[in-house]
Each structure stands twice: as structure tokens, then as C-alpha cells.
């Protein structure tokens, strides 16, 4: 993660959205405007800023603009276009359902979502949004998972290293085959699993249980399967980042006193969080490894034992997946 770059949401063409505290700036552009190198869009509340950036010695993600001629704009049809030298189009995307859009605008929302919407009519009807195309970072309000209607998988892909934002081989997504669960993979090899969803949390991870910091939900129906989280205190800045080094998913929060990002949690944090490393009872035989029992909520244990029935003790028929 580079200096000041935590939320890399829109970097296919080396634009970046970062946490910011700039105010009194534009948060949108219309077809008559454009965003060029040195200019930025800033969300209305000053939390996020969008602009071109240069990062380390990266050669691509996937084909960057190598000079200062970059230009981002939206056309009257709602199409988003990135151009380079001599106005050569290097990237573009057609807005979904763009037919009928009357006055398209490209706007950076307070959530960090970059959207194309019609400035006339329903402000929540987005023709296109960057939150559908994740990179290495998950922000509050992002859907992490599947839109089954169009076969869209919203998953994270780690940077190759701190100076190279091109995708590494570490990915994080929701697996649809068999039982639904979140999986971190190195290439095609499963590395970390969340365990199954039991209605309250994921059975294999304490990080998806009730906490004082954020709320979350897991939606599973015929149209969508996704995880989503929201901060309880909206003044807090936080995100989850998948990092190639260490093969970890880390949650960071901004410390206003030190003016620095602080790691709130990391997963996996021991060998038994790693897929296939431990046996069915969570036993790891590595040297100097601290062994811990899985932590369950009281309500989970009560349901698993039918109200602490003597006929259904844990280890004698109790099922903590309930």
C-alpha cells in the first residue's frame, strides 16, 4: 500500500480514489467538462479525492498512461472514456442501460463510489459505478460477492507489491460451488476460508461476528450473493485491504491524532486460519504455536445444545453451525 493510497478503487487506467480532507472542490463533471492530469474530483463531504497518480516502478495496470496527457470524460451517451496523447482512447466503458440517459454526469460520492448517473431524475439510479469493479480494497458500502443476474463477481485482487498496483496472484472472493463461503486464494489454490454462514457470522472466522466497530450483513437470494459492511461511526475512516505480502486481509483505520493509518485486524493471524494447515479439531503441530479454542457466541452455543440440554452437549451431538 503506497503512501496516502489506501483506497485504490479505479486504477485500471492509473486513476486513484484516495481518502481526502479537501473541501470546496468539484465532485462531478458533465460531458462538456473533463478531468486532466493535475485536476481532481473531491466528494461533497471532502472524504475522497479522484485523480491521476504515479506509483513506483509499475509497468502496467493494465496499460498506464506514461505521460501527463491523460484525460477522463463522460460523453452525452453516458459512456466513460479515458484518453491519452492525441486523444487516443485507452479505456472506455458503456454505461449499463445508457439508452435514454438525458444529462449524464460523472460524480464521486461521499462513499468513494465513482458513478455515472442522469442529473435529471432518480439520483440513485446509476448507469455505471466503480463499486462493481473492485481492486485490492473493500470500502464500507461496497458489495463483495456476486450479481447472479449478469454473472458479475466482485472480488479483491492484491497488488503485486507496495510499488506495483498490477494484480498479484492473491485473490479474495465468495465461492458459489458447494457451500457458500469466502475464500482467499493464491492462484487456484485455496489459502484461507471463512467457514460457512450460519445466519449470524461465518463459522471459521471471529472477524465476522458482532463487534463495536462496524455492522455487516450477508445477502443470499436468487439475484445476488454478497457480503457488505457499514461503519457504526460514520466519522471514522476505514477499509479492508488484501495484501500480497503475507497473504493477508487487513482492516485499517485512520488515526487523526497520529495522522497515520493503523491496522485494526488481520486475517489469517495464526496457522489454523490457513486452509488445510490444521486438523478437524483445530490442532496445529508447528513449533511454538499458541493453540486456541474457537470462540462462539453464547446464543450460538445455546441453540447448538438445545438450550444446554444434557442430551445434546458439545462434543456429544451439539452443532455450532446452527
UniProtKB/TrEMBL annotation:
What's any GO biological process attached to this entry? recognition of pollen
**Leader sequence residues:** 1-25
Q: From which domain of life does this come?
A: Eukaryota
The record, for InterPro entries, names:
Bulb-type_lectin_dom, Bulb-type_lectin_dom_sf, S_locus_glycoprot_dom
Instruction: Tell whether Glycoprotein is among the UniProt keywords.
Output: yes
**Per UniProt, which keywords does this protein have?**
Disulfide bond, Glycoprotein, Signal
User: Do the record's keywords include Signal?
Assistant: yes
One Pfam annotation reads: B_lectin
The segment(s) forming the Bulb-type lectin domain are 14-129
Against PANTHER family, the record matches this protein to: BULB-TYPE LECTIN DOMAIN-CONTAINING PROTEIN, RECEPTOR-LIKE SERINE_THREONINE-PROTEIN KINASE
Name used for this protein in its record: S-locus glycoprotein
Species source reads: Corchorus olitorius
Q: What is the lineage of its organism?
A: Eukaryota, Viridiplantae, Streptophyta, Embryophyta, Tracheophyta
Amino acid at each position: 500500500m503506497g503512501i496516502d493510497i489506501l483506497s485504490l478503487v479505479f486504477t485500471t487506467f492509473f486513476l486513484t480514489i484516495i481518502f481526502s480532507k479537501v473541501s470546496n472542490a468539484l465532485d462531478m463533471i458533465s460531458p462538456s467538462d473533463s478531468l486532466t492530469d493535475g485536476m481532481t474530483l473531491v466528494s461533497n463531504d471532502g472524504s475522497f479525492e479522484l485523480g491521476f497518480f504515479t506509483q513506483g516502478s509499475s509497468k502496467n495496470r493494465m496499460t498506464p498512461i506514461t505521460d501527463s496527457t491523460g484525460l477522463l470524460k463522460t460523453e452525452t451517451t453516458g459512456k466513460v472514456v479515458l484518453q491519452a496523447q492525441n486523444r487516443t482512447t485507452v479505456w472506455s466503458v458503456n454505461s449499463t442501460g445508457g439508452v435514454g440517459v438525458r444529462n449524464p454526469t460523472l460524480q464521486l460520492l461521499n462513499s468513494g463510489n465513482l458513478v455515472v448517473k442522469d442529473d435529471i431524475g432518480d439520483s440513485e439510479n446509476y448507469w455505471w459505478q466503480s463499486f462493481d469493479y473492485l481492486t485490492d480494497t473493500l470500502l464500507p458500502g461496497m458489495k463483495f460477492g456476486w450479481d447472479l443476474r449478469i454473472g458479475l463477481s466482485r472480488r479483491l485482487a492484491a497488488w503485486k507489491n507496495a510499488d506495483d498496483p498490477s494484480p498479484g496472484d492473491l485473490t479474495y472472493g465468495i465461492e458459489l460451488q458447494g457451500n457458500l463461503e469466502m475464500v482467499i486464494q493464491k492462484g487456484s489454490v485455496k489459502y484461507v476460508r471463512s467457514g460457512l454462514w450460519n445466519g449470524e457470522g461465518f463459522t471459521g472466522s471471529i472477524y465476522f461476528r458482532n463487534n463495536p466497530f462496524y455492522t455487516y450483513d450477508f445477502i443470499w437470494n436468487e439475484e445476488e450473493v454478497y457480503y457488505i459492511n457499514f461503519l457504526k461511526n460514520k466519522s471514522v475512516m476505514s477499509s479492508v485491504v488484501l495484501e500480497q505480502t503475507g497473504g493477508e486481509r487487513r482492516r485499517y483505520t485512520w488515526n487523526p491524532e497520529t495522522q497515520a493509518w493503523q491496522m485494526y485486524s488481520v486475517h489469517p493471524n495464526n496457522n489454523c486460519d490457513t486452509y488445510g494447515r490444521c486438523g478437524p479439531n483445530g490442532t496445529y503441530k508447528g513449533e511454538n504455536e499458541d493453540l486456541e479454542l474457537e470462540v462462539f457466541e453464547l446464543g450460538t452455543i445455546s441453540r447448538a445444545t438445545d438450550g444446554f440440554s444434557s442430551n445434546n452437549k458439545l462434543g456429544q451431538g451439539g452443532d455450532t453451525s446452527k
